[in-house]
Design goal:
Elements lengths: L1 H14 L19 H8 L7 H7 L10 H4 L8 H4 L9 H16 L47 H11 L9 E3 L2 E18 L5 H5 L1 H19 L6 H10 L5 E3 L9 E3 L2 H11 L7 H18 L2 E6 L4 E5 L7 E5 L6 E5 L11 E7 L1 E2 L15 E5 L1
Parallel strand pairs: 9-11
Antiparallel strand pairs: 1-2, 2-5, 2-7, 2-11, 3-4, 5-6, 6-10, 7-8, 8-9
Helix pairs in contact: 11-12
């Protein structure tokens, strides 16, 4: 366990945008361990599902972008089940699309949608297909830990639906036709206002992390007070302000709820208050919690921006989110997504089509609340 902890510290440092304490940097050489050693420590020698390999694999500089996924086939346990083979006749876009379609249709692996980002390096990729040739972003949905259930009903909601409607209306029916993904979900509302974004932060500001966090929390609070009306009680309002900047997660090496990520605890609330009120008397425990809050906030913020919805919710989404974009929940997904309506197609395409912009955190709908109010379920068409 001690060796695992030593390995995790520098990895955690990198994953959090190099914002942790300088004492961790002395362990950076551990990152230079040979890939096979890291592989043995991380997932063990036995074959793993392809999704696990793909979501955890780092970009390894393949000269042929198709090898970013093909190289993993020999280390996976479910290639036959997925029905995919190495095929260099296909273009990179065709290869990536075939793999994504198999994972979605045969295994319902909704988590790969969280890997999608814009812009993509590979041309002709549908918006719902991840570009595996690009470095993996820090995702709100961590495939190792099931923290959220935005696309699922709670047990109480399931029982209510069963007795009132007599059938399961929340069943997902994924299908792919050529480059189009059809998925069932529900729309929360549209993006109404845009807030603070990571591209508005200068390099000098990134280097002064504690001050950046204090400034940012003030900006977020002002934005919330002006635009977010969905939270009725004072507690709900306070929760939205301190939980959203860290996507309701906290970084921790050990604990009963996971080694890296778990839902934010009262310690993170105390850290938030310490940042917001620097006059509070510091103590060692609070200072440690501040480091964890800072690390999680800045890592989550990188490549993202805050927004409010037409329903008055506070969200944190992709950097390229626009006013008028749509926030939706997709059945069986862990997190909500931002999608963008595209222009009208042919007469045969009478249904609205969307592009997937990316995953998002929207405070107040991360645990299935979207489905409480008999939300209308519809077929979402992603191209």
């Amino acid at each position: 366990m001690a060796f695992s902890a030593l390995i995790e510290l520098p990895m955690l440092h990198v994953n959090c945008g190099n914002v942790l304490t300088d004492r961790i940097k002395v362990l950076a050489p551990i990152q230079k361990c040979q890939p096979r050693l890291i592989e043995a420590w991380g997932t063990g020698p036995s074959p793993q599902p392809l999704t696990t390999r793909m979501l955890r694999a780092k970009k390894f500089g393949a000269t042929d972008a198709r090898d970013q996924i093909y190289a993993l086939f020999g280390m996976t346990s479910d290639i036959e089940e997925l029905g995919i083979t190495v095929d260099y006749i296909k273009s990179c876009a065709e290869s990536y699309t075939a793999v994504a379609a198999a994972l979605l249709q045969r295994q319902q692996k909704m988590e790969i949608l969280s890997r999608c980002r814009n812009p993509k390096a590979q041309k002709d990729l549908p918006s719902w297909v991840p570009d595996w040739s690009q470095p993996a972003p820090v995702m709100i949905h961590d495939p190792r830990y099931g923290l959220f259930s935005a696309g699922r009903r709670t047990m109480t909601q399931k029982l209510f639906a069963r007795f009132t409607m007599g059938r399961n209306t929340m069943k997902q029916k994924l299908r792919v036709e050529v480059k189009t993904l059809f998925a069932r979900g529900s729309i929360l509302g549209s993006v109404k206002q845009l807030g603070w974004s990571s591209d508005a932060v200068s390099e000098e500001e990134w280097e002064t992390s504690p001050q950046l966090v204090r400034t940012g929390l003030g900006i977020i609070s002002d934005f919330f007070n002006t635009n977010c009306t969905a939270y009725r009680t004072l507690k709900d309002q306070e929760d939205a302000i301190w939980r959203t900047p860290i996507a309701d997660m906290e970084v921790g090496l050990f604990g009963p709820n996971g080694r890296f990520n778990r839902r934010a605890s009262a310690q993170m609330r105390n850290a938030f208050e310490a940042f917001r009120n620097p006059s509070l008397r510091p103590n060692e425990e609070t200072e440690q919690c501040k480091h964890r809050y800072l690390a999680c906030m800045l890592a989550t913020f990188l490549g993202r921006r805050y927004f409010s919805t037409s329903t008055g919710h506070l969200g944190l989404g992709p950097l390229d989110v626009r006013v008028g974009d749509v926030v939706c929940g997709i059945i069986d997904s862990s997190v909500p997504f931002v999608i963008r309506q595209i222009g009208p197609g042919s007469r045969e395409q009478s249904k609205t089509q969307y592009e997937l912009v990316g995953e998002c955190y929207v405070h107040g709908i991360m645990d299935g609340e979207l489905w409480q109010n008999k939300s209308e379920i519809e077929e979402l068409i992603l191209v």
